[in-house]
């Protein structure tokens, strides 16, 4: 569908793609669907927006284990994970870039937080929504709740 290889879809490409795949809908309905995919309202759909819209919903069991991990990381309990929350929970001194002197401890923490931050909003603060969104992506590739819960418990020592 990405005819110009921009790694995004504008509405024209989206409409052509729907047509190419024999999705016969009127322009107004296509515009409505496009807006659902275009999460940031930029007028284009990037690959992450495309995947986020297509992934299946998570069960309550998965959401609860994700929130347990979030609460463990959010030491201050203010609903946001920051560098300060990570001190004492995440040992940056074992990170290779810290060991070779490329990064400070705070840079290691920031890189860790950036994994969970939205790609277009890396502010060093991870909200429950961002954390949940990250794990919704992970969840989409794991078939059973049991396996997902075991993975989360092992990863976060819950």
UniProtKB/TrEMBL annotation:
It comes from Callipepla squamata. Keywords: Calcium, Metal-binding, Repeat. GO terms for molecular function: calcium ion binding. Gene3D superfamilies: EF-hand. Residues 25-60, 61-96 form the EF-hand domain. InterPro entries: Ca-bind (IPR051581), EF-hand-dom_pair (IPR011992), EF_Hand_1_Ca_BS (IPR018247), EF_hand_dom (IPR002048). CDD domains: EFh. It holds the Pfam family EF-hand_7. It comes from the Eukaryota. This is EF-hand domain-containing protein. The keyword DNA-binding does not apply.
